[in-house]
Amino acid sequence: MERGMPAGGPGGPVTSQAPPFTVPMRYMLLGMAGFVLFAFDLVAQSIHLSGGGAFLPQVVALTHLLTLGSLLSFIMGAVYQLVTVAFLVPIASERCARWNFWLYAASAFGLIGSMAIWSLTGLLVFGSLATVSLYVYAILIIVSVSRSRIRGPMLWFVISAHVYLMAAVAAAWLMIASISGLRLGGVFPQLLATHILLALGGFFTFLVMGFSFKLLPMFTLSHGFATWRQKWTWVLAHAAVCLALIGIWAQRPALEWAGGVAGWMAFASLLFDIREIFRKRLRKKTEPPTRMVVVAAVAGMAGVLWMLVQLGSGREQDGWQGVVTFYLLGWVVLTLMGYAYKIVPFLIWTQRYSAKAGRNAGAGDRPGPGMRAHTAGSAPDAVTASPPVKPQKVPVIADLIQLGRSRPVLQSFAIGVMVLSFSGVARFTAGAVAGSIMIALSVLGFIWQLQRVVDPKQVAKELRGHD
Amino acid sequence: MIDLCEVREALRQNVYDPEIGINVVDLGLIYDLQEPEEGTLYVKMTMTTPGCPAHDSIAEAVEWAAAQVFGVAEVKVDVVWDPPWSPERMSEEARQQLYG
């Protein structure tokens, strides 16, 4: 009997590396809750978002409610799930991932609260705890994927992202320490720029780019596309971060500008790859969330271009606030929203329906896995003697969510981002408020659609008593 | 004696790729069905991509659905990557569904 390369070892198809449902789901639910809080807080703070309110405590707290309270939390859950399927390795320590959730939730929200009331003690205590928690997460992921036999650009992107995360967190902790009295010789502006660069251009960008090389072909069923450009995207993205970093610390605007050019080229390379993936796709009808990921990549490229203009124009805080808002919401958040429309239903389907897949029969009419009458050497008479049954359809993932309805949500979010970003630069308060309301309504619509898939009552039962 | 056509039909009727919504037979994921010894069914299959998140559920669904066919006493599912899946393996119906 001719056999190919077995995937699951001899004797069966089992290759399961995925963590228990409760591990990624808790993080994702926290991220979704954080996103709802962000929507309300965004409207509440919208009046401060035009005209340089970026350093107000409540705006700093709002920014971190999005990045720490929502994005990072959701990403941690998604990454715990994705690394197991993309790299075919288990999480290095499931127990650690599970318990780290509570440390992360307490420290992140404690830190955000401390920012809102500007409590230096709170910033130091919760900031230190959040640093520990994020280091635990980053090390877990780096150790896990390093054990994988799958090599290539996706692995480089994921490892780089988590190294940048640790560096960004270190910069943040140093900022807190300097505010609390640690003498750092007046480098606070450089630390702030480093923190933003490493978090946005480093962690979020590398992670989204890396996983896009896996997720987009999967969602479009693309085959036979060229992958040679991926390594150059990785090199260019690193060049962008490193050049900009040197420019910030050496105070050489030319290097910052060179970093921006490299970043723009990294996005151009990514977009060529995405175009190639779409050209070779078998699913000709692309779903709205997947299309929006492409729009988000274009927004990322536009954000870098805006940064280059900003570097040349010499505009100060307002301009930078606009760039960061546009890049964060238009590239990072929009991409994650697009992927969340696919990842969350998959996770729910796996938990609730995968065990029923292939069993399109009424319960009790045919034997379940534990009741099989057909062992070696005996014909399964008991099975075939069952009366005919009316088949019950096991849903596929598309049955769990109507992805067509994501279109207005994602489109209004994208428009809101543009209105908010440009109004901030133009010091147009009414525009900033209108943009914030559009974004908030889109976020609430997005969460409403996801919670219908998740079903809070059922997920509460599934999570209860598992830690 | 296992009726391999009946097994194929059972898989066509019951086992779907949950993401694409097309059954595994029309997708061309089933490479080979054999009965190496009386009552034992050997299924050689693949996934559309290595690291497919639905890997386990599809493979287990194939095992379960095949086990329901008359004469099948034991099922052995082997998921292989060589040869890799390619779009040419899909049936005309599957292509129409995807391209539509």
TrEMBL record, chain A:
Transmembrane regions listed in the UniProt entry: 27-48, 68-89, 101-118, 124-143, 155-179, 191-211, 232-251, 257-278, 290-308, 328-349, 432-450
Ranges for region Disordered: 359-388
Transmembrane helix is among the record's keywords: yes
UniProt keyword list: Membrane, Transmembrane, Transmembrane helix
Record-given protein name: Cytochrome C and Quinol oxidase polypeptide I
Organism ancestry: Bacteria, Bacillati, Bacillota, Bacilli, Bacillales
UniProtKB/TrEMBL annotation, chain B:
Classification via InterPro entries: Fe-S_Maturation_MIP18, FSCA_dom_sf, MIP18-like
SUPFAM superfamilies in UniProt: Fe-S cluster assembly (FSCA) domain-like
Pfam families membership: FeS_assembly_P
Residue ranges of domain MIP18 family-like in the record: 6-77
PANTHER family, alphabetized: FE-S PROTEIN MATURATION AUXILIARY FACTOR YITW
Name of this protein: Metal-sulfur cluster biosynthetic enzyme
Organism: Alicyclobacillus macrosporangiidus
